[in-house]
Amino acid sequence: MKKFLALAALLLAAAVHAQEPQMNLPRVKLTAGMHVIDAQVAATNEQRMTGLMHRREMPQHEGMLFVFEYPSQQCFWMKNTLLPLSVAFVDDAGTIVNIDEMQPQTLDSHCSAKPVRYVLEMNKGWFAKKGIQAGTKLGGPIFR
């Protein structure tokens, strides 16, 4: 019985932890024209799978940059994601390939138009409000 209770407590703790947003990932400064982005970097499978899930708010100048090992078609969805987001699919050189708008807590796929290595999520409408579109080149140490 003690083993069962210990296992149940461990599983409950893991479930509670899984519901917490990622807030302490490494960060990188990116630029989009004159705009500066403070991006958390999701570089491991676990970090990418969790992404911005369970976040209730995000400052306007912040986002999350997903980094993959090599370029491929990337598709994102919004399972357990509470914030409406805009997603930019970015090639190795930092050029935005395409941008899409995503609704919270949906399973709709939002995919890159061609293979990319980076994906940048920002608050919904951020790219449009700043006049940033496909073809815009992002700057930052990660693209050098």
Give the topology, please:
Elements: H1 2-18, E1 27-32, E2 35-42, H2 45-50, E3 62-72, E4 75-76, E5 85-90, E6 96-102, E7 110-111, E8 116-123, H3 126-129, E9 138-139
Parallel strand pairs: 2-3
Antiparallel strand pairs: 1-2, 1-9, 3-8, 4-7, 5-6, 5-8
Task: Characterise the protein shown here.
The protein is α+β, with helices and mostly antiparallel strands and 144 residues long. It has three helices and nine strands. It has helices spanning 2-18, 45-50, 126-129; strands at 27-32, 35-42, 62-72, 75-76, 85-90, 96-102, 110-111, 116-123, 138-139. A seven-stranded mixed beta sheet has the order 6-5-8-3-2-1-9. Strands 4-7 form a two-stranded antiparallel ribbon. α2 (45-50) links the parallel β2 (35-42) and β3 (62-72). The protein starts with a helix and ends in a 5-residue tail after the last strand. The model is unreliable at 4-17 (pLDDT under 50).
